[in-house]
Amino acid sequence: MESNVIAQWAEKLGWPTYGLRLVLALVIGSVAVLGFSPYDFPLATLVALVALWSLWSTAGSWRQGAAEGMAFGVGFFGYGVSWLGISLAIYGGVPFGFTWLVVLLLVLLLSLFIAMVGALAVWSGNGFPKALWALLLLPSFWVGAEWLRVMIWDGFPWLLVGYSHTDTWLAGWAPLGGTLAVSFAVSVSAGLLWLLLRSVQWFPVALAFGLFWSFSGYLSGLSWVEAKGEATQVALVHGQVSETIKWDSNALMPILRAYEQASEPFLGRANVIVWPETAIPTFLDSVMPALDEFTQRAAQSQTQIITGVALREDTIHGRQYFNSIAALDGSLRYDKQHLVPFSEYYPGFAVLSALAKFINMPMSQFSVGELPKVQPVAEQQVGLAVCYEADFGLEMAIVTPTTDWWLVVSDDGWFHPSAMAGQHWQMTRLRARELGREIVRVTNQGYSGIARISGEGDVVAKPRDELAGHLVSIQAYTGETPYVRYRDMPLLMLLSFSIALVFMRWRRSKKVS
Prior knowledge:
By secondary structure, the protein is α/β, with parallel strands linked by helices. The chain has two domains: 2-222 and 488-512, no CATH class; 226-480, Nitrilase/N-carbamoyl-D-aminoacid amidohydrolase (4-Layer Sandwich). 50% of the residues lie in helices and 17% in strands. The longest helix has 29 residues, at 96-124.
């Protein structure tokens, strides 16, 4: 039926059917982005997957399925992560044409994962009952591709479809299996809707859809962890410093004084005051004399000042530089461990390293840190993460059992103004839910606030808000969500079962031929 409708429209438009299908896939991919922040329309992502399932169910060959998946990916990632060009062109000094060539190459690389799903979907479509294909195989292929995208090389965890449902009942799956489990639930929901649209006996499918969402709602109301002790008072100093002036040496002292002035009202009131990633836009040792008086006042008021800052030190490997979180009194230091390719380091491949000649990012030659991710802050055990690190739930889950809460510093100004800041905050909120720990997030030109374990977010400042301090209460928790305990293992077992089914189908087809 879907194929006939597309063919009829192609005939009316005078287009080849194959070409119209690719255009539809491209448009559908763009629509899917509307489920993510700052648009926050999760139904759009769900409907887009239903439409993609429909295309793949009527594709003539696995090659056509791969092409349609590629087109979907170009629309999806081309619209969803186009903000990467802002960082390269405006702040990295990369020529405009070369910037969008780099972004296009990344989009095409990411789209290959969806092309792989399309090829597998069409290839397996005739070998299994439609219900099994739509409710197990397709979700498994999709989530398997997302898992690969997060895990291989340095990973790119952006636009996992689970994030689009941070505010729906499907988010109740996050504490069980993480963001990927929510992605699986979204894919299953798309499969149920696809079956509903093409089924003559619609009532059983509608009932299954209602039961699945009702059970998800039940999961959404469960609490997996317990509150621990009294809330801790933390002051967040939200930054509003444009990258165009931040790295100007003449702006250094005004920036330091602005952060000091915003922090003054909270000395003695807050247990700890936190500044964003690289709030001090130079190496810490070079500005400590200028911060000495403020540091002394903080010590007298028994308030710890923690900031994102670059550190340098001489080691047996030579002079090394770190993107770090540090306390001005020297009581805390954490060096970022999961660095961002092309902005914090350049991969060792010869061709990729050559790109560094075109990119002029400040502070872009960092080393990987080795200090513990969990350290004492205000007499509690706090997990520490810098920007990109907080997008990898598995890495955070490994150490979460020893944490009371998480502290994340970020500089979203590299991509300001764009949808990136909203996407980042949405990811943080779902992360708090999957880990069962509140997350304090302090940003420059992003969303600053606390992500609660319910997935709700207490935003104290947004990307365009002025540089200012905000007092918040952070609650410590104890216990483990199933995801923290078992991590990706249950989901990988399910994906392995699906792969085994496909392998058996392949073996049967080989015997028949």
